[in-house]
Amino acid sequence: MSNLHHSRAAKGFTLIELLVVIAIVAVLSVVLVITLNPAQLLRQARDSNRISDLSTLKSALSLYMADVASPDITGTNSKCYAHTSSTATATASGCNGRYSSATTVQTSSARTVDMSGWLPVNFNAISSGAPLSVLPIDPINNATYFYSYAAEETNYTFELNAEMESTRYSSGGSNDVESTDGGSSSTLYEVGTDPGLDL
Predict the structure, then answer these.
(1) Residue 45: pLDDT above 80?
(2) How far is CA 113 from CA 64, 107, 123, 136, in A?
(3) What is the per-residue pLDDT across 141-168, written as a single tens digit (0 to 9) for each?
(4) At 108, which helix (H) or strand (E)?
(5) Which phi-psi region, left, alpha or beta, contains residue 182 (left: φ > 0; alpha: ψ -120 to 50)?
(6) pLDDT of residue 166
(7) b or e along 74-101 (b: 16 or more beta carbons within 10 Å of the residue's beta carbon)?
(8) CB neighbours of 113 closer than 8 A, spacing ≥ 6?
(9) Mean pLDDT calculated for residue range 16-28
(10) Listed range (78-82, 83-87, 118-122) with the worst mean pLDDT
């Protein structure tokens, strides 16, 4: 009987063994968190979303200009358009300095695709219907991180831009999209038919 009791006790873990395992797991968890940097991963996810949103908007605008007989891309050399909840952007010249000679900033909180949204183009005029249900907005959407749009109506050129926040996608990062996009700014991600558009 004593042999049976002894074999059962030998199969369990001692308190010291459990504490050692818990300590090892804690050290590995800390190393994993430091290595992955969750805050940077969230910034990268938001930047990926920005890149995707601007690509979608560029495609929708290109479809609009190819399909509509007399496209109205609403562009003057003194206006830029932005979606933002920030009054700082609404009052800053050139969409917070993104366009050097654009003096009027038109902001809207609307996301509609019928020309009354922040991007003033009537996507409903496309013969197959609007390719977007709503206009996308920046994941943070404040005075620094917002989407902006400007167009030059004579040549039917436009630019959409956003600022990246992660070290990976920002200027000088491993997947730098700001200084390699062909635009005129090395601190903005610019896309469109004229990514260097300088109003």
Answers:
(1) yes
(2) 12, 15, 6, 10
(3) 888 898 989 888 888 889 999 999 999 9
(4) strand 104-108
(5) left
(6) 94
(7) bbeeebbbbbbebeebbeeebbbebbee
(8) 121, 122, 123, 124, 130, 132, 133, 134, 135
(9) 91
(10) 83-87
Distance (Å, rounded) from C-alpha 67 to C-alpha 90?
32
Tokens found for residue 118: 């922040």
Torsion sign (Cα): 192, 193, 196, 198: negative
- Rounded-to-10 torsion of CA 177, 86, 60, 188: -20
What is d(CA 150, CA 197) in angstroms, rounded to the nearest whole number? 8
How far is it, in rounded angstroms, from Cα 163 to Cα 47?
8
- Of 70-74, 94-98, 189-193, where does the model show the most confidence? 189-193
- Place 89 in a pLDDT band, splitting at 50, 70 and 90: low
Element (H, E) at 147: strand 147-152
The answer to whether the CB of 134 falls within 8 A of the CB of 111 is yes
Q: Residue range 166-189: average pLDDT? A: 91
β-bridge partners, 192: 159
Residue 176: the pLDDT is 94
Provide the β-strand partners of residue 191: 160
